[in-house]
């Protein structure tokens, strides 16, 4: 039986166990723990920090705050377009790229996706 291919913007993102906070100006800062052997080595030898703090821009911060494990990328895009008129240019192309980056860096996962 052939699986039906789902459109990328129909995916439902969920934040993947990240600690984050919003500053007074609405900017999201994500705390990332630097784990693994090479990070451990860099921390010991070069005094690299155990945690990194990633600040998102205003659009990224807005999108991040919309990720609730229920809205699709498409729905988040509609909300972004309605509240930030400047975000409409190539909206879904840019959103798809943004979500792929978040997924590749393990900041988000998608609900209902097989791991294998």
Question: What layout of secondary structure does this protein have?
Answer:
Blueprint lengths: L12 E3 L3 E4 L5 E6 L3 H10 L4 E5 L2 H9 L6 H11 L7 H14 L3 E3 L6
Antiparallel strand pairs: 1-5, 2-3, 3-4
Based on the model shown, name its key terms.
alpha+beta; three-stranded antiparallel β-sheet; two-stranded antiparallel sheet; 116 residues
Task: Briefly characterize the structure.
Helices cover 38% and strands 18% of the residues. It is α+β, with helices and mostly antiparallel strands. Helix 2 packs across helix 3 and helix 3 packs across helix 4 (91-104).
If you compute it from the alpha carbons, what radius of gyration comes out, rounded to the nearest whole angstrom? 16 Å
Order of helices and strands: EEEHEHHHE
Helix content: 25-40%
What is the overall number of helices? 4
Overall SS class:
alpha+beta
Instruction: Name the shape in a single word.
Output: globular
Strand content: 15-25%
Mean pLDDT: 91
What's the number of extended β-strand segments? 5
Question: How far is the first residue's CA from the last residue's CA?
Answer: 18 Å
Which regions contain 5 or more consecutive residues with pLDDT less than 50? none
User: What can be said about the biggest beta sheet?
Assistant: 3 strands, antiparallel
- Strand arrangement within the widest β-sheet reads 2-3-4
């Amino acid at each position: 039986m052939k699986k039906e291919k789902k459109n990328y913007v129909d995916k439902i993102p969920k934040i993947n166990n990240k600690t984050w906070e919003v500053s007074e100006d609405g900017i999201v800062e994500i705390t990332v723990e630097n784990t693994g052997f090479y990070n451990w080595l860099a921390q010991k030898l070069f005094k690299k920090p155990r945690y990194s703090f990633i600040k998102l821009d205003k659009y990224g911060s807005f999108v991040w705050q919309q990720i609730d494990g229920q809205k699709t990328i498409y729905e988040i895009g509609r909300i972004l377009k309605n509240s930030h008129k400047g975000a409409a240019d190539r909206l879904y192309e840019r959103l798809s790229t943004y979500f792929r980056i978040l997924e590749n860096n393990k900041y988000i996962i998608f609900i209902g996706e097989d791991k294998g």
